[in-house]
Amino acid sequence: MPSTAPATPPPISPPAINLPESSSIDVERQSSPISREDTPLLTTPDDSDDASQAWSPPLGFIPIQLAIMTNVFLYGFDGTITAATYAVISSEFDAANSASWLTTSYLVTATAFQPLYGRVSDIFGRRACFFVSTVVFALGCLGCGVASTVFTLNCMRAITGVGGAGLMTMATIINSDMIPFRKRGMYQAMQNGVVGFGAICGASFGGTIADYIGWRWCFLLQVPFSVFAFIAGYFVLKNQHQGIAAEGGFGALWKRVDFSGALLLVTAVSTQLLGLSLGGNELPWSSPWVIGALAISVVLFAVFVRVEGNTTAMPIIPLRMLQGTMPIATQVANLCAGMSMYGYLFMLPLFFQAVLQDSATKAGVRLSLPSLAMPLGGLISGTVMSRWGKLIPLMRTGLVLMTVGQAMVSSWAFSDASWKYVWYIFPSHLGTGMVYPAILFISIASHAHSDHAVSASTTYLVRSLGTVWGVSVTSAIVQNTLSVRLPQVLSEVPDKWRIIDEIRHSVEALRTLPPDIQLSARLVYYDGLRLAFVATTLVAAIGVAAAFIANPANLRKTHG
Fold first, then answer.
1. pLDDT beyond 50 at 377
2. pLDDT tens across 203-228, in order?
3. Which CATH number fits domain 61-257+313-488+525-549: 2.60.40.10, 1.20.1250.20, 2.40.128.600, 2.40.440.10?
4. Distance CA 121, CA 1 (A)
5. Which end of the chain is more exposed for a tag (fewer CB within 10 A), N or C?
6. pTM of the entire structure?
7. What does 415-470 look like in DSSP terms, one character per residue?
């Protein structure tokens, strides 16, 4: 970066800042010294009071923010675009019963590769990882737009996820390099507001795009934005640290970096999410393939933990970051927030299209107004973090709002007042906008600056695991309800198995059914979706419990 960048701290954790006992947030005292392998590899802003107050944005700051915020928006947009369009896409390919793969194939690879970006960017540099994630994401979107079969589309979604894994993570890490911790609250909240806004735009307007110009453009329209982010980043983004890739060649690099742990983690996450995605959708939960995949993933996770605990190289996820009541409670809340929100968000467009018989465009219109709640929550979170540093209360408040909001949605009647279908969505979206940046900053504030990149990527890993679990579980609840209840309610209907197969394969098939059969099928959909909303509400409530277990002491100060 330019010479105006803040000074580089010594290669140990920053000195403790003594705050008054009455302060709501104290500085963390590390319980164990940082090993040689964990010393910082990057030039970072000085987090002392004087340096934070004197900090000013470096040269090229605004173009850098435009580049990374473009990627952040795409990360949110692409993660939910199939929630609004999968009914249309799956009907075209006659594959509604496996439609969840349009989302989970993306989330599986995004989750598996997300923790790698933090450590790999320490090695090869922020610039290289930023460009790799941007280019791979753009190629994946392009492939989705031209896919001719549902199998090809799902494969392209998986490739998109490999790039998407780095979009949000690299934005957080790049800002962590440039902006002192005390000044970062509003920027991080803005970043989470942008990703939240992108997620809601994907869920809200994806259906409109699909209805008017075709679902393929939902993916193709993202490519120019990726090209813009690449070009903007190419001219202004520089590495702020010296990596280790060129020091001693590949052999030395292998010894210093825990590549075996990285491979184990990617394999374990992918295997587990594959089992969760198959279970209840393509195969019954009792299938040997599902049970085998889940069992193998447990074994691989156990081996990964053992390798991380014994490695002499730089661990992909230092286990000390997940030890103690505070880190565990925070990550449980993080997992629940991701699982609850994505499961809920994935089911909302399906409720409108299957139960209320809305078009994809009308379903998007219903979601467009509540979309403002998520960036509003991010703005509230950023203001509170910057002014008062109340991280734990923010996390608790956000999760409570998510729980209350999703409970309100689960109370929807089959035919209810139209205003409820809009305003009941607000509380959960507002809570999500508040809780996401709060949890990330709690995780970052629990560790020294040398661990910020890995801490951020670990937080995103846990949250992403939750998102895939949420989509998989809610989709399984709905599909299992259809498979069990439809044969019962349509028992007197001639050729019922053909009709049931059509309903499970295409939401659009509901519109062609006779009124009495259509009503019965819609009621079954309603029961399944209501159960799914109840499940996400219970998960959010578990997150609330974890948030109240978390202790606000021993966090670094986040406000100046």
1. yes
2. 777 878 888 888 899 999 999 999 99
3. 1.20.1250.20
4. 16
5. C
6. 0.75
7. S--TTHHHHTTHHHHHHHHHHHHHHHHHHHHTS-GGGHHHHHHHHHHHHHHHHHHH
